[in-house]
């Protein structure tokens, strides 16, 4: 388990009121690639563990003021350190002493005077066990997340797709009825209704597929050509914008950021589509951007529509697994996609609105600034 660099060194807190023991243990661990943090008493141990929880604690039992048993009890009572394994060190060798150590929360016990080989073997064993436990916990969390998503997919299919498919089916049945004697204009109307409902159902399916991609894909953040990304989004909503007689303003230049262009384009399309639907009659839409003090950049889409109340804003951007809590018309699924995209891109999303008709709403998202590329992920490349 010897690390390859300083950042990956296992972090071991050593607690002993005898300086000679501390020096010996710290040197022994450092020589074998561990980051040793020696402290002389229980109070220092609790403060150090809370400030930076270690991977493992070597804890002496016999100490003044606060003995090792009490230190361990307090560590196990604190959520920040409750899962940190503790190996007790003591000259006490009676069975009752060892039993008390395990009852207090210790995972192992080393009797003084200790041998270097034994200490290292027990340290390695407990670090391996901890690593396996953390890996298992991560897998359980991933499984629980997948189950929650599957339930949400089922909910979305059952509720979101039911209406458009029922509408399309009803129109198709009327058109296919040989006994129906409809004028051509009425047939065209029903055909248009069927096409519109099927298009809505198709859009929902595409959104669900995008959500599935967002869960599974690992991407590399790369510098974006935001001007080209916005242009692609505007081209996709152009028919809707023309039909609504909308005016859309945008800045001459954009801040430099990192991301993944296909996903960022989806954010713009979602925000623009909502603004075209609810941004007034005719819609007046403004796109904008500005750097943030932390080196990121904030982008937004503002409209002049009816706005959103504080309660409506609270129900937006809910996780996909909680879409049933939102009934803000026209949002929900799309904004849950935006939320997941920004999380995957190490950013965030939100909305601002006074709720006053005519003052509209501003939907925004934040992305990391240029120079914050990462090397994580594989299989999907930024463009």
Distance between the termini: 38 Å
Along the chain, the helix and strand elements come as: EHEHEHEHEHHHEEHEEHEEHHEEE
Silhouette:
elongated
Structural class: alpha/beta
SSE order and pairing:
Layout lengths: L10 E5 L3 H13 L3 E5 L2 H10 L4 E5 L7 H10 L8 E5 L4 H10 L3 E4 L4 H45 L1 H15 L7 H33 L1 E2 L2 E2 L2 H18 L3 E3 L8 E2 L1 H18 L5 E8 L5 E6 L7 H6 L17 H12 L3 E6 L7 E7 L11 E2 L3
Parallel strand pairs: 1-2, 1-3, 3-4, 4-5, 6-14, 8-10
Antiparallel strand pairs: 7-9, 10-11, 11-13, 12-13
Could you walk me through the main structural features you see in this protein, from its secondary elements to its overall organization?
This protein is an alpha/beta fold and 383 residues long. It contains eleven helices and 14 strands. The protein has helices at residues 19-31, 42-51, 68-77, 95-104, 116-160, 162-176, 184-216, 226-243, 261-278, 310-315, 333-344; strands spanning 11-15, 35-39, 56-60, 86-90, 108-111, 218-219, 222-223, 247-249, 258-259, 284-291, 297-302, 348-353, 361-367, 379-380. The strands form four sheets. Strands 2-1-3-4-5 form a five-stranded parallel β-sheet, sandwiched between helices. A five-stranded mixed β-sheet has the order 8-10-11-13-12, with helices on one face. Strands 6-14 form a two-stranded parallel sheet. Helix 2 (42-51) runs parallel beside helix 3. It is elongated, with a radius of gyration of 30 Å.
